[in-house]
Design brief:
- The structure holds 2 protein chains of 2 kinds.
- Helix content of chain A is 0%, strand content 49%.
- The N and C termini of chain B lie far apart (38 Å).
- In chain B, strands 2, 4, 5, 9, 10 and 11 form a 6-stranded mixed sheet that branches. Chain B has a 5-stranded antiparallel sheet with strand order 1-3-8-7-6, with no helix packed on it.
- Classes of the chains: A mainly beta, B mainly beta.
- The interface between A and B is medium-sized, with 28 and 26 residues.
Chain lengths: 113, 113
Amino acid sequence: EAGVAQSPRYKIIEKRQSVAFWCNPISGHATLYWYQQILGQGPKLLIQFQNNGVVDDSQLPKDRFSAERLKGVDSTLKIQPAKLEDSAVYLCASSPVRGGGYTFGSGTRLTVV
Amino acid sequence: DQQVKQNSPSLSVQEGRISILNCDYTNSMFDYFLWYKKYPAEGPTFLISISSIKDKNEDGRFTVFLNKSAKHLSLHIVPSQPGDSAVYFCAASEVTNAGKSTFGDGTTLTVKP
């Protein structure tokens, strides 16, 4: 079974620029999550999708962050404009049902300078 | 307010001995708990979970114990191996939103040969 694919692996941008991350979950997994992990901290949920609908985006800074999951498969997370404090690893995860363990991708390490 | 706390940032044990990683939570609505293991430059990997209807779950060398009255869980690794050296994250979720997990900040385990 192929894992959760994320790209790019690394991204360096200047503050106020925009950036987008892509995630392809495990085939058949209905639930997809985007987490932000700041260095030295645990992952923090940004947004949760069930198929192509948003289940929870209460912790997504909607003034600058947006996410979509077209056709209930791939997902993109966008930041516009980026701030220095957005420097983190952005992890995508998927699960077949709500609950249980997730399968995480390797993440995208974003550095905002 | 951090709802899931791992108070030990690091732990060092000798190969063959027991490793005990601890986790405390404050939200009494949490009823499903998970442990993830993370190697550098990789996403977290699901390790083991426990439902609040149990107080123990075992999978090979890994055992998770849950003390609901104390809002405390622990992960035991016996015997510890050098390949177990990683960051371990505790996570918790609620039955009403079983997909959304809240993570602790992790404990770095080092197993010395």
